[in-house]
Amino acid sequence: MNDLVIMHDEQAVTTSLKVAESFSKAHRDVMKAIRNLTAQNCAVGNMFDKATYVNKQGHEQPMFYMNRDGFTLLAMGFTGDKALQFKLKYIEAFNKMEQMIKEQALPQTPEEKLALTMQVTGRLDKRVTKVENTLHDMQEKAEVDESQRYQLLQARKHRVIEACGGVDSNYYRDKKAKKAFSEFGRDFKKAFDIPRYDCLKAKLFDEAIEFTKNWYPSFVLQREIQNVNAQTRLPID
């Protein structure tokens, strides 16, 4: 009957084996009662932790760890004077174990308090650094969003039409601007080493807008535009 309550994963617990022994019940019946409890309410599952033990025959068998709440819920169904005495012993054992864990967790001397503070600060620093690195990676890899893509397309349209001589120019009115759009697209993708506009990294958006504003057609295309725009358009009756 020793060690009614033990420490497991830094909390006070007991086991289905110890409960079965203490209350003179078959372990299979205690296991069945626990499974019924966990099946009735998913929240109860947090009170019990599945585990295994090796029996006298050397075979691995299932059992459960349970915290104070799990034991209390399970033991509600145990009645009688003897059962009451064991419940009280368990409550006392839980209290003692939880107090021991609390005392072990709390720093006692100034040196221990300082060491704990440094340890907690170190953990926080690591978490902050990890979050910052994650955000940095996201920013580095993020591509332009829908609004930015629209702005880029509008800037491209404005610049290409301007390079053609405007919407009233011969080159644009003769529907030759497609050639200028194609050339801009090739230059843009080459400049930013991307296969499509929507692959542009968001961090390069401002640079892409600046590129678009300052883009000029190739010398050959500029001569072509100038020649077409210099032609006199005959009036159509």
By DSSP (H or I, 4+ residues per run), the number of helices equals 10
Strand content: 5-15%
Given as residue ranges, the uncertain stretches (5+ residues, pLDDT < 50) are none
> Which outline best applies?
rod-shaped
Q: What value does the Rg take, in angstroms?
A: 38 Å
Strand order of the largest sheet: 1-2-4-3
Taken in chain order, the helices and strands follow as EEHHEEHHHHHHHH
Question: Quick one: how many beta strands?
Answer: 4
What does this structure look like?
The chain is built from 10 helices and 4 strands, in the order ββααββαααααααα. The chain is α+β, with helices and mostly antiparallel strands and 237 residues long. It is rod-shaped, with a radius of gyration of 38 Å. The protein has a 4-stranded antiparallel sheet. The longest helix is centred in the middle third of the chain and has 32 residues. The mean pLDDT is 83. The protein has 2 domains: 100 residues, no CATH class; 85 residues, no CATH class.
Nutshell version of this structure?
This protein is α+β, with helices and mostly antiparallel strands. 62% of the residues lie in helices and 9% in strands. The longest helix is centred in the middle third of the chain and has 32 residues, at 110-141.
Which key terms come to mind for this protein?
237 residues; alpha+beta; 2 domains; 10 helices; 62% helix; ORF6C_dom; Phage_regulatory_Rha; Phage anti-repressor protein
